[in-house]
Write a structure and sequence with these properties.
By secondary structure, the protein is of the alpha/beta class. It has 7 helices and 12 strands. It has one domain: Alpha-Beta Barrel (TIM Barrel). Strand 1 and strand 2 form a beta hairpin. It starts with 30 loop residues before the first strand and ends in a 6-residue tail after the last helix. Bound molecules: iron/sulfur cluster.
Length: 299
């Protein structure tokens, strides 16, 4: 879910905003310990599943005792109000959107992983002993099992962040201490994307990417909230302003703006976003995990 964009999809980007990342960057390589865990400096990959292709998933999944999981790992939360906090991450596999610049295509365009039981996942979360769980994807809100999973994590005293695009607000909602919502702007739509030869996903993505009633339901839900936006130009700001004008129950300090890109942004990119944050009272959102680890899986 953590976002990045490709300026090639944007066009007409002014100099101050421009510059970009190469989504073909290599992924990190892990060493395997005798106990089967995989370790890299500063982060511990707890479960990297064989890359079996899942036949799922872009529609709600009603199973309540298991989840399709792409990976679990312990790392530093890289974005948002809890940046810097050691956390156990659970990445569900499957998404109802297809952002053209998606930085986790193995959980969206080509979902990989396998199903794991809640019993297994809860034991792993408790064993991580970091006190914070981040449920991300893909789109974790597709899965009804999130409700019993989050109740069990809450009962174990674990703080829960759910990272979602905010297009789904099922009833009942899972328990959540920090709703980390990343609405997808127009630049996310996979126009002329070779992975979408018929254009079917472009149409579906465009129809789904902003769901104001769902966003409002999440903002009204108990817990803290943050709305994270990847911003690259003035058009993005206009789209953000238009969306925020339709929503209530947010404060400027809940709005987080990130420069586009999946590498460390340039000084000009940082300055452009910082200027907007200063003028509107929004928060500047760094990507600490990129600075610490680069654009690698398991971070
Ligand atoms: S919403 Fe889905 S497609 Fe878009 S960035 Fe997140 S995981 Fe990728």
């Amino acid at each position: 879910m953590q976002g990045a964009t490709d300026s090639a999809a944007l066009g007409g980007v002014c100099d101050r905003w421009a510059s970009h990342a190469d989504s073909s960057q290599s992924r990190g390589v892990c060493g395997t310990r005798p106990d089967g865990f995989t370790e890299r400096p500063h982060r511990l990959v707890l479960f990297r599943l064989p890359s079996s292709r899942l036949t799922i998933l872009d529609e709600p999944d009603l199973a309540r005792d298991s989840l399709p999981v792409s990976e679990t790992f312990v790392s530093i939360q890289g974005e948002g109000k809890l940046a810097g906090v050691p956390s156990w991450f659970l990445r569900t596999s499957g998404c109802n959107l297809r952002c053209t610049w998606c930085d986790t295509p193995y959980a969206s365009w080509s979902p990989e992983g396998t199903r794991r039981t809640l019993t297994d996942l809860i034991a792993e979360a408790k064993g991580a002993k970091v006190g914070h769980a981040v449920l991300t994807g893909g789109e974790p809100m597709l899965f009804a099992a999130l409700v019993p999973l989050t109740h069990a994590l809450r009962d174990a005293g674990i703080h829960i962040t759910i990272e979602t695009a905010g297009t789904l607000a099922p009833t009942p909602l899972p328990h959540c201490d920090l709703w980390s919502i990343s609405p997808k702007l127009a630049h996310s739509t996979p126009r002329n994307d070779p992975r979408d030869a018929t254009g079917a996903w472009a149409a579906r993505h465009e129809q789904r990417r902003l769901n104001v009633p769902a966003l409002q339901s999440l903002l009204n839900a108990p817990g803290d909230h943050q709305l994270k936006f990847v911003v690259s130009n003035e058009r993005d700001l206009a789209e953000i302003d238009d969306l925020l004008s339709k929503l209530t129950s947010w404060a400027p300090s809940d709005i987080l703006l990130m420069p586009e890109g999946i590498t460390t942004p340039t000084p000009a990119q940082r300055a452009a976003v910082a200027d907007v944050c200063l003028s509107r009272g929004f928060r500047y959102c760094a990507r600490l995990h990129i600075e610490l680890f680069g654009n690698t899986r398991g971070t």
